[in-house]
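Good morning,

Attaching, inline, the backbone tokens for the sequence recovery test we're adding to the shared suite. The designed sequence is right after.
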């Protein structure tokens, strides 16, 4: 039977593993509570990638975070991909795993980006059915992450209502990307705290935080390449008052600061925002 969300361990504050940061991450392993691995960078690769994952697993709790489950596609799930993801989740002994509330594939066409789902009640039910199946095949909690979207989609439901409808129809959890929420609230003109009021906070297991930039047209872009803005830390602090979060994860994908201490300082800012001590690792 799949573990209930309320029984999941508290992992603390972690960092998205990127190969360019591997050396620094390993040298400061005692200061980083856990790592998130991009699932697709490890599955369907040479055995060297699994050896790398095992090397990391000996030092950190690992959470696989995927890009291609595409629970929002109109067709069926890719069962072979799901099986490969489930095997990887198993191999790294992850307490949970995640992917995005979106679609990345239509038929046999790979779309190459995260595309928002039409927010209707029937699509919410269909997404929930697929997410539940993913969770059951992997035998552990599966979290869906809210994405950024830059154009409005066909919608009968507000984004928070859509997310709530998905969660109402499955037992999966939510990976709330607080930066995505903040960016969407600016680009689409809504109050992020009303969004937090509208979703079931007890389903939020993990969060992402990252930093983006503003374009010349005044649009916020979620690039994962700048420091986390103060508004995001405040939203995170607000969210942590509403529920018992199990993990906070800093995503940094580019524009890496020459001094790794800058990234480590952001992990400390995350700890401050949620009021957590550093997790003691017995490994
Ligand atoms: Fe994210």
């Amino acid at each position: 039977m799949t573990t209930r969300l309320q029984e999941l361990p508290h992992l603390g504050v972690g960092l998205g593993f990127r190969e360019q940061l591997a050396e620094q991450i390993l040298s400061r392993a005692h200061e980083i509570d856990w790592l998130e691995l991009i699932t697709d960078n490890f599955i369907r690769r040479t055995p060297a990638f699994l050896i790398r994952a095992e090397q990391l697993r000996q030092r950190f709790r690992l959470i696989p975070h995927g890009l291609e489950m595409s629970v929002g596609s109109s067709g069926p799930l890719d069962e072979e991909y799901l099986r490969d993801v489930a095997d990887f989740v198993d191999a790294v002994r992850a307490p949970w795993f995640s992917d995005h509330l979106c679609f990345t594939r239509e038929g046999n066409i790979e779309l190459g980006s995260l595309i928002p789902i039409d927010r209707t009640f029937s699509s919410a039910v269909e997404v929930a059915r697929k997410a539940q199946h993913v969770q059951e095949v992997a035998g552990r909690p599966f979290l869906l992450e809210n994405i950024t979207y830059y154009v409005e989609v066909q919608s009968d439901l507000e984004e928070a209502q859509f997310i709530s409808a998905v969660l109402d129809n499955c037992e999966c959890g939510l990976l709330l990307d607080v930066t995505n929420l903040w960016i969407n609230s600016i680009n689409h003109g809504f109050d992020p705290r009303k969004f937090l009021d509208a979703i079931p906070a007890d389903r939020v297991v993990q969060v992402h935080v990252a930093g983006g930039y503003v374009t010349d047209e005044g649009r916020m872009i979620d690039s994962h390449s700048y420091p986390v803005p103060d508004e995001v830390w405040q939203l995170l602090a607000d969210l942590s008052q509403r529920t018992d979060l199990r993990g906070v994860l800093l995503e940094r994908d580019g524009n890496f600061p020459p001094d790794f201490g800058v990234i480590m300082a952001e992990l400390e800012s995350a700890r401050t925002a949620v009021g957590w001590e550093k997790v003691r690792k017995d490994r």
